[in-house]
Write a structure and sequence with these properties.
0% strand, disordered N terminus, Four Helix Bundle (Hemerythrin (Met), subunit A), mainly alpha, 6 helices
């Protein structure tokens, strides 16, 4: 009976550590969701390109954190979000006024949100 006590203690510690990983991944997912929502809701013409750059940077930072917390199995979906984010950045850096870029940026942000929705679906088991 005494031999089982250390095994049970180890299993409890491993379970607690895994719970922390899941909790961290869930928190990172919620933070990323919030930054994607902010990006989705920006009005480029009224808020300006600097506000959009700030939101794009926040999504990029939060995506990196989420990738680190969620693990390699979601990497293809993380890459799709990153690629869509790069397209938005490319449009931002192409020059032009907010009014001139609005249509291209709206398409880019829409593509980014679609990629995020795909990633979120793939990550659904993390927090359920």
């Amino acid at each position: 009976m005494k031999r089982f006590i250390p095994v049970v203690a180890v299993l409890l510690l491993v379970g607690a550590a895994c719970g922390d990983d899941v909790s961290s991944a869930c928190e990172a997912q919620e933070t990323l969701q919030s930054s994607v929502d902010d990006l989705r809701n920006i009005d480029v013409v009224d808020d300006g390109l600097d506000a959009l750059r700030t939101d794009v940077d926040a999504v990029a930072d939060n995506l990196s954190t989420f990738r680190d917390e969620a693990g390699a199995e979601l990497e293809p979906d993380v890459d799709a979000v990153r690629s869509a984010l790069d397209e938005v950045r490319s449009t931002l850096e192409s020059g032009g006024t907010p009014a001139e870029l609005a249509s291209s940026l709206a398409t880019g942000v829409s593509d980014l949100v679609a990629a995020w929705d795909q990633l979120k679906g793939a990550a659904q088991d993390l927090c359920d």
